[in-house]
């Protein structure tokens, strides 16, 4: 019985080592948003005065291959304040950076307060997670 147990443990060990070798070098990819300096973004928080314009760059790292590309959409009452380039991410590879430049223009006469718009990426009608909240403080 002891020799049999040793043989079984040896086989299990070999299988586990083989599995680790197969997975070696395969990145675990999690979709997310980053700033140009390499910091992860859970939100983009900006302070912009009424009548002012700010340009900000965000980077999306996808978790999946989206060879058909991704559409970029904004939602929220103040989505008209923001324009973006490029208008679409044409071909998206896992773990490859996709830069999006946002231009945020707060209209003159906007009341002080906090405003939020959500930046979304879609493949067809399917939303890619995570969305990026763009929080604008007008002093």
What's the SSE blueprint?
Layout (H helix, E strand, L loop, with lengths): L1 H22 L8 E3 L5 E2 L2 E4 L5 E9 L8 E6 L6 E4 L2 E2 L8 E8 L7 E11 L2 E13 L1
Parallel strand pairs: 3-10
Antiparallel strand pairs: 1-2, 1-4, 4-8, 5-7, 5-9, 6-8, 9-10
Description:
- By secondary structure, this protein is an alpha+beta fold.
- The protein has one domain (about 30-139): Immunoglobulin-like.
- It is about 15% helix and about 45% strand.
- The protein contains 1 helix and 10 strands; from the N terminus they run H-E-E-E-E-E-E-E-E-E-E.
- The protein has one helix at about 1-25; strands spanning about 30-35, 40, 45, 55-60, 70-75, 80-85, 90, 100-105, 115-125, 125-139.
- Strands 2-1-4-8-6 form a 5-stranded antiparallel β-sheet, with no helix packed on it. Strands 3-10-9-5-7 form a 5-stranded mixed β-sheet, with no helix packed on it.
- It starts with a helix and ends with a strand.
- The relative contact order is 0.23.
Widest sheet, order of strands:
2-1-4-8-6
What is the H/E order?
HEEEEEEEEEE
SS class = alpha+beta
What is the name of the CATH topology?
Immunoglobulin-like
Shape: elongated
Task: Please work out how many helical segments DSSP would assign.
Answer: 1
CATH class, please? Mainly Beta
State the fourth-level CATH superfamily: Immunoglobulins
Q: Provide the helix percentage.
A: 10-25%
Could you tell me how far the N terminus lies from the C terminus, measured between alpha carbons in angstroms? 77 Å
Tell me briefly what this model is.
The chain is an alpha+beta fold and 139 residues long. The protein is built from 1 helix and 10 strands, in the order αββββββββββ.
């Amino acid at each position: 019985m002891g020799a049999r147990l040793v043989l079984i443990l040896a086989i299990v060990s070999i299988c586990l080592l083989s599995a680790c070798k197969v997975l070696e070098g395969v990145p675990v990819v999690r979709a997310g948003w980053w700033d140009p300096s390499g910091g992860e973004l859970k939100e983009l928080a900006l302070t912009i005065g009424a009548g002012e314009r700010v340009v900000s760059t965000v980077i999306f790292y996808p978790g999946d291959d989206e060879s058909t590309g991704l559409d970029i959409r904004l939602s929220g009452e103040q989505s008209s304040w923001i324009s973006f380039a490029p208008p679409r991410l044409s071909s998206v590879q896992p773990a490859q950076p996709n830069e999006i430049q946002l231009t945020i223009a707060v209209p003159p006469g906007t009341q002080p307060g906090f405003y939020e718009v959500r930046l979304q990426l879609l493949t067809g009608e399917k939303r890619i997670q995570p969305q990026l909240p763009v929080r604008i403080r007008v002093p």
